[in-house]
Amino acid sequence: MSYPTALPSEELPDKPEEACAVFGVYAPGEDVAKLNYFGLYALQHRGQESAGIAAFSADGVRLHKDMGLVARVFDEEILQQLPGDIAVGHTRYSTTGSSLIANAQPVVVPTKLGSLALAHNGNLVNPEQLKESLKNDNYELISTTDSEMIAVAIAQEVDSGKSWLEGAKAAFDRCQGAYSLAIGTPEGLMGARDPHGIRPLVIGTFGDNSQHYVIASETAGLDIIGAEYLRDVEPGEIVWITEQGLASYHWSEKPEPKLCIFEMIYFSRPDSIVNQESLYSYRLRLGQQLAAESYVEADSVIPVPDSGVPAAIGFSHGCGITYEEGLIKNRYVGRTFIEPTQRMREVGIRMKLNPLKDVINGKRIIIVDDSIVRGTTSGKIVQALRDAGAVEVHMRISSPPVTHPCFYGLDTDNQDQLIAATQSVEDVAKKIGVDSLAYLSWEGMLKATGEDPNNFCSACFTGDYPIEIPDKMKQNKLLLEQNVSS
Ligand code: SF4
User: Which segment of 57-61, 234-238, 315-319, 469-473 scores lowest on mean pLDDT?
Assistant: First the structure.
């Protein structure tokens, strides 16, 4: 099933598409499917193509998944048919495999110890190799996703006589790339991160004496069900939650943290906690740093809502220019079954953002956003501001130019579609029609984290990939490598 969108592709948001969300609950005696539903609901921004929940009870595992938003896929009746003590859930944006129900998650695979259900956020970089090794043992793959390969690899190891934990460890040794996982089994709930911890994964507790556990992509998924944030699952760690409680195993000998910096800048919710503080606070600092680096005289600072809001507030704090809302977002534009008419296409961006003339007219405006990726919408926003009477428009971006694609679970398009990969800042400024354009420096972005800069992946700004990308995979996306390096 495919979903027509309100806007033609050139008018879709000028952002990479989100990764996926995983959510797992271990809570005997509680309505685990419903808790999972709310968790996924809070993490809907991480994937809107499909949603699914698998629940484990004494009778085995029951699964429901379908294409569409969480609220469309589940209702009260469906959730009641998913009883159990353990549940894992997933929302998906397709980074590998096409947008098909067969590729929706969780993936359920039978093993000698009972079925496992796996929810994956990330991307493997050795899927071909893994697929080959799986085929040799006559395991059949029914989807086109690397997530199914991880599930089948665990099943293979378990079927060879290993325990759940030993089987998972052995399977992870065969996987290279980014994977944050929530895995349900009849015995317990498992959470795991690859040795670089590229995608986030957190643990929470709830209930009397904190005896129930939750695993989620972001802390916003814990907040919605009243769970308390315990800690992050560490890079290269497996947490195994059973009736004995939570046990931790560091299976990787060389964990090397490389959290995706784009999670911090844009993907994760601003109310999610990373490194003990909200991403809202980090994004404020990005804006302050940006103001320090690229101040320009103006009358108002306005954000591109909603993604640019914290950085615009930070920019305003940093330079003392008044912060105002100059663009009002239509929150209900998203997926619709009604194709826009030609006239609506012409007004383009106003289906999503409408300028406030009282704020804009006669003013010198600084407009702040978190990133420019394809550059498809920035020009339309600038034109809309000029039509509303702006006398000057200066654009400030709270991240560096995106010059390289992501291979670790985010869809940033091929390199030739990234505007900054082929055009200078001056050329981009000319193309989008601003009086001036400035990006945050790479050093400034990392400094604002307040952490060791080596703990982050920032490859889409530098091309310095922390996990080696096989040549074949590179060839498909790094079409401009020669031009960029010359
Ligand atoms: S390449 Fe960019 S988007 Fe991908 S994991 Fe690294 S920082 Fe994140």
Answer: 469-473
